[in-house]
Amino acid sequence: MFKNTTRRSMVLGAAAAGASLALPASALAQASSAAKTPLVGPLAPNPAEFKKLMEQFTGGKATQADGLQLDVPVLADNPSAVPVKVKVTLPITEQDWCEEIIVLAELNPSPLTCRLQFSAAAGTAEAAVRIRLSQSQTVHALARMKSGKVLVAKQATTVAASGCGM
Question: In what residue span(s) does the Ig-like SoxY domain sit (predicted)?
Answer without folding.
Answer: 56-164
